[in-house]
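pls ignore typos typing on phone
zinc ion + seq
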Amino acid sequence: MALIHCPECGKEVSNQAAACIHCGYPLSKAQEERFALVLLSRDSDYVSTILTVQERLQIDDYTQAKNLVDHLPALLRRDLSYDAAVELASSFRPNVKLVRDRGETDEALLTAPDIPLPDSQEKKAQAGLGFGGTVAAVIVGIFAAVLLLSIL
Ligand SMILES: [Zn+2]
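k done
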């Protein structure tokens, strides 16, 4: 057991406690795992990669975004929740890796082992099939109705 400082009131509490004994701040939340994203390579379209970086990282200066893309691997963003990291990664796939951010230096994060990203593409394909299937069923239904009417 170790003592940590409560991020809310600053008093010492056990790192095993679910909430701060002084102010009730939920500590499990504060200790939630953090993630970082590293851009490994760029798209075949160099300019579009820069523009995506600029847009997603909200960098005002084009040159600054270009500089980042010119020096790969580059740390895109750190200290993200898992969901935020996966969401941001979706704009850069497959040129990006997700790593755990345990407060290492930026340089250490660049070479940190990557965590596999959830396969969102597969999910999208399944959703597409579901939609296509529904459309096909409707078309077949209309055809059957027209056929029936023409017979009658
Ligand atoms: Zn506290």
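The chain has two domains: 1-31, 33-118. Strands lie at 3-5, 12-14, 34-39, 74-80, 96-101. more later
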